[in-house]
Amino acid sequence: MFSYRHAFHAGSHADILKHFTLIHLVEYLQEKPGALTLIDTHAGAGIYSLKDGYATVSKEADGGIFRLLKYIESCKQSGTPIAASIEHYLNCIQAENTTEELTSYPGSPFILASLLRPQDRLKLFELHPTEIDILRHNVNELKQSKQIDIYAEDSFARLKGLLPPPSRRGLVLIDPSYEDKQDYRYLENAMEEGLHRFATGCYAIWYPVLSRRESTALPDRMKKIAAAHKRSWLHTELRTENAPGERRLQASGMFIINPPWTLEKHLAQALPFLVKALGIDGGAQFLLKSFEA
Ligand code: SAM
To answer: Is residue 1 a part of any domain in this protein?
Structure first.
């Protein structure tokens, strides 16, 4: 159960899709001045070194953030336009680094913390006994303790207790490791309960695109839940390769319930660029679908 450490995956293509989407969701919601509650149900350690530790073993950032940076450099040299949204995402990542060279990759807690306005609140859940200590230490360094609560608890069990947030405006990022197959079922329950209590909340679910039955079924299960609650949705996937076997993660997806109307256009502009930047073989592609309730 506790073998997953996100440091192995920090800065991967999957993190890029997830965090690129996340930044837009928060910034859209912040167009209104009302207080926001941001809930990160699966926080991880908060920020990761790309220069030592697990990230240097897995080298997933080589196929993610470092590959994207190389591609951007080649675009600059050839005069190829770069979508402003991609530059904005990179600025958010760069802002968590003190040197021009990228040595750290911020996870969702740090990205969300960097976007907080004084009226917003951030709730982080982490269950791993080591990750929670690292998360607490890292978040402590941010000196935003008044705005950030950390829970060493099972978020699938606790989420409903935080919904609806006092301001009735909120975003829930659900990013399980899915190392436990039961996570797929827990996710469905959490979404059913979440929408029952807080139907207007924005829910962003990340998932790995794998051949296992639970993974291929996930988008349809989410569509059914959204339909039962008469909610709009957006579904996107980014595939960087289509090679036999599943030695490494080749694609991942985001399923957003109650997406902002701007999200589809935002992704439509960025995804072709990301496919070119991160694509490894001819199987690289994206998917983008939505439904308005
Ligand atoms: N959201 C992070 C990011 O984007 O930087 C990455 C999170 S990682 C994919 C998933 C994390 O969830 C792991 O650190 C794992 O220990 C934690 N976790 C697993 N099951 C959990 C649960 N039921 N409640 C809270 N945290 C859990």
So the answer is: no
Q: Which domain holds residue 172?
A: 6-291
Residues in contact with 54: Cβ distance below 8 Å, sequence separation at least 6, in sequence order: 5, 7, 8, 10, 48
Q: How far is the CA of 128 from the centre of ligand 1 (A)?
A: 8
Q: Is the residue at 203 inside a domain? A: yes
What's the pLDDT tens digit per position in 100-115?
899 999 999 999 999 9
Does residue 181 form part of some domain? Answer: yes
CATH number at residue 182: 3.40.50.150
Look at the chain and report how many structural domains it folds into: 1
pLDDT at 1: 60
**Quick check: 124 and 151 in contact, CB under 8 A?**
yes
Rounded to whole angstroms, the Cα distance separating 224 from 245 reads: 30
Among 12, 13, 22, 87, CA closest to 270: 87
Please identify, by atom number, the ligand 1 atom nearest to the C-alpha of residue 154: 24
Kindly state whether residue 101 falls inside one of the protein's structural domains.
yes
- Give phi and psi for 266, each to the nearest 5: -60, -45
Pocket test for ligand 1, best of 22, 40, 42 (most atoms within 8 A of CB): 42
Which alpha helices (DSSP H) does 64-181 contain, by range? 65-78, 84-94, 108-115, 129-141, 155-158
- Residues pairing with 170 in the sheet: 37
pTM over 0.85: yes
